[in-house]
Amino acid sequence: MAYFLLILLIIGQTGQIQAKRERHPLAPSLPLLSEAEEARYDKIVNQFIKYDLGQLPGAEGLKAKNDFLNLGSESIPALFRGLQISAKLEHSCPVAMISQKLKSFLFKSNDDELLEYARDELSSALEGSKHAPLLQDMRLGVTMRRKVVLANKPPVPKWLLNMTVAEMLKSLQEEENQQKHKLMAQELGRRGDHESLKGLGLFAASFYPEVKEPSIKLLQEKMRKLKAEELQDFLKDANPLLRQKAAESMGYLKAIKGAEDLVPLLLDSNTAVQKAVREALVKIAGGKDFGPVDFSNTENVRNAQSDWKKWLMVEGMK
């Protein structure tokens, strides 16, 4: 009996750990994977492509096939990267098998953002591909699935649709209705334009955790979908949370273009922004780290800024 209870406890703890995992910014139904996890899934997909082309015989090929067949939905981004590769090949087997695997996930999905991402990836794979009919058919299926999902989503309340960002911010300042403010934050995220995201940044600074925590999560998801040039303006915003999330998103994108705008923020007045900037620069640099080690030491920070500028200058000349 004690052993049985221990197993239940372990399962319950595992479930809690998985539930707390950060979601993928392009598809909330998927977990955000580490670089090591992404690399592992890429290897499985690439090994399967070799197997399907007849380049991996015997036990190694059988393992590649089984590993591919056992992939779960969290591998969807890696499958799309494999689809991009196989779509350019002469052989039809890899693209057909990867497409079938993707369809098994996508055609049952209720995540409209995942389906939108899938449609964009398929449009990209179509360019110059010899397997256009297969990919076009799959894109049509994804489009139809997304229409069904959107049709079944609860409508946004009319009163909320008609509210301006300024009116929402006034409500945030003057009222204490957390449920109402949660809906407003969701609507700002849905709109996703520059003004709405700035407004969402203020909801993410709310005193109430019921409003603050989902707003921060939503802000992060939306900012990671922006391009580097769109993030640059948020790096200069008066709201430190927007500067922090913009820096984190630059690191997520590994965007060397515009990375020079991060360097001055190593001397930002907000500690969280400083740390986010350093982490972003390290990601952009592929692991190289020029500091600073101590943000309280201004000379140390200025030396680090100088080293980062030199590195960026060298990279820009390549």
Describe the structure.
This protein is flat. Helix 2 packs across helix 3 (58-69), helix 10 runs antiparallel to helix 11 (194-203) and helix 13 packs antiparallel against helix 14 (240-253). The protein has three domains: 26-151; 155-226, no CATH class; 238-318, no CATH class. Residues 1-19 have low confidence and may be disordered. It has a two-stranded antiparallel sheet with strand order 1-2. The chain contains 16 helices and two strands. The protein has helices spanning 2-19, 35-52, 58-69, 76-86, 93-106, 112-126, 132-151, 158-161, 165-174, 178-191, 194-203, 209-223, 228-234, 240-253, 271-284, 298-316, and strands spanning 23-24, 27-31. The protein has 318 residues and is mostly helical.
Quick recap:
The chain is an all-alpha fold and 318 residues long.
Feature tags:
mainly alpha; 16 helices; two-stranded antiparallel ribbon; 3 domains; single chain; disordered N terminus; 318 residues; 68% helix
| Global Rg | 23 Å
Give the distance, in angstroms, between the N- and C-terminal Cα atoms. Answer: 65 Å
The total domain count is 3
Structural class: mainly alpha
Low-confidence stretches: 1-19
Secondary structure: number of strands: 2
Strand order of the largest sheet: 1-2
Silhouette? flat
Largest sheet: 2 strands, antiparallel
Order of helices and strands: HEEHHHHHHHHHHHHHHH
Mean pLDDT: 89
Topology overview:
Layout: H1 2-19, E1 23-24, E2 27-31, H2 35-52, H3 58-69, H4 76-86, H5 93-106, H6 112-126, H7 132-151, H8 158-161, H9 165-174, H10 178-191, H11 194-203, H12 209-223, H13 228-234, H14 240-253, H15 271-284, H16 298-316
Antiparallel strand pairs: 1-2
